[in-house]
């Protein structure tokens, strides 16, 4: 029986407490062994499901622990590169929350450190581990909807009341594009394997962060439009519209939280085939895929090179939207 991957978590973030901590604890071939937080009270919810957890008062102390193989980094966006590099320098594999960088140029140092150390470093882009997205990719590749003509996506929620939230603060890398734009953009790239040729965008800013972003693009084989917002009623959907059919995902990004994952395949005259995914846990699947990559050398589904492509598109959205505002 292979030894489990022993995980440490840098910071007692709410997302780590609710999703990734339990996922690491439950994943086959993984063991949650340590948490670093300066607030011991924040460690208690983790210890409730993982009583043997070692709690460190600072991040460096956790990284110095030789009994930890990999670290999960759920820190605010602007700290991701710094602590991913520090973790690799300490000999730890890294799974860092998205966006792993604030701009695409920062990937160079992450990839260089990965190559230097031989460690696995990746963005925690969990949706590519969910079987609904594997099915979307397969259906498009098989021509189930004919030639793909258009892709559209939406992801919204409303956190205007939570003014202290890091997603509402420019200095911590907040805003909708970095938080949820990665999904409507990255998922289209993942499912189609294509990169955009042209991009146009419009952003509504509030206190230095993008509160509503509308994006249009041309890919080599299809047109694309999407919007994300942190100031609208919660909603998410992705559609892939072909010449002879359509694929619709009703909970594409956080199934089981937003709702049951369902893939609708529309073909013919009112013919709709529905595939449901009621139990799949994409966070647990992500941890298990990470472990397989370490044990068997399997290709991790979300390498840094893929994540860089998504960040390049986000960078371009910011660039064209800012230029449009300057000309107005």
Short note summarizing the structure:
With 328 residues, the protein is an alpha/beta fold. The protein has helices at residues 14-26, 40-49, 59-63, 80-89, 107-117, 131-141, 176-192, 282-296, 304-327; strands at residues 5-10, 30-36, 54-56, 70-73, 93-97, 121-124, 148-158, 198-206, 209-218, 223-229, 231-242, 245-249, 261-267, 271-277.
Characterization of the model:
There is one protein chain. This protein is about 35% helix and about 30% strand. Strand 13 (about 260-265) and strand 14 form a beta hairpin. An 8-stranded mixed sheet has the order 8-9-10-7-11-12-13-14. It is an alpha/beta fold and about 325 residues long. The chain is built from 9 helices and 14 strands. It has 2 domains: about 5-125, Rossmann fold (3-Layer(aba) Sandwich), CATH 3.40.50; about 130-280, Dihydrodipicolinate Reductase, domain 2 (2-Layer Sandwich), CATH 3.30.360.10. Helix 1 crosses helix 8 (about 280-295) and helix 6 packs across helix 7.
């Amino acid at each position: 029986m292979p030894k489990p991957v022993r995980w440490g978590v840098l910071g007692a973030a709410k997302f780590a407490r609710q999703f990734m901590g339990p996922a690491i604890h439950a994943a086959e071939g993984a063991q949650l062994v340590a948490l670093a937080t300066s607030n011991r009270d924040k460690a208690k919810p983790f210890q409730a499901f993982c009583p043997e957890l070692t709690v460190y008062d600072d991040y460096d102390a956790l990284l110095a622990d030789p009994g930890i193989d990999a670290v999960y980094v759920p820190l605010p966006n602007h700290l991701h590169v710094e602590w991913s590099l520090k973790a690799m320098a300490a000999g730890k594999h890294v799974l860092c929350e998205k966006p792993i960088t604030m701009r695409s140029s920062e990937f160079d140092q992450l990839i260089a450190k990965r190559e230097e150390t031989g460690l696995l470093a990746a963005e925690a882009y969990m949706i590519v581990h969910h079987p609904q997205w594997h099915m979307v990719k397969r259906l498009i590749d098989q021509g189930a909807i004919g030639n793909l003509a258009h892709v559209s996506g939406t992801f919204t929620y409303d956190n205007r009341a939570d003014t202290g939230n890091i997603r509402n603060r420019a200095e911590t890398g907040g805003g909708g594009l970095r938080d949820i734009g990665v999904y409507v953009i990255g998922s289209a790239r993942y499912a189609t394997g294509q990169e955009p040729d042209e991009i146009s965008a419009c952003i509504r800013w509030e206190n230095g962060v993008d509160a509503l972003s509308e994006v249009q693009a041309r890919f080599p084989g299809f047109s694309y439009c999407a919007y994300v917002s942190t100031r609208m009623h919660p909603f998410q959907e992705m559609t892939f519209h072909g010449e002879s059919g359509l694929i619709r995902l009703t909970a594409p990004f956080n199934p089981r939280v937003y709702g049951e994952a369902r893939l609708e395949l529309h073909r013919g005259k009112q013919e709709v085939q529905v595939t449901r995914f009621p139990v799949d846990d994409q966070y647990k699947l992500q941890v298990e895929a990470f472990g397989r990559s370490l044990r068997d050398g399997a290709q991790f589904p979300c390498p840094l090179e893929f994540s860089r492509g998504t960040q390049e598109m986000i960078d371009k959205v910011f660039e064209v939207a800012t230029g449009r505002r300057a000309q107005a």
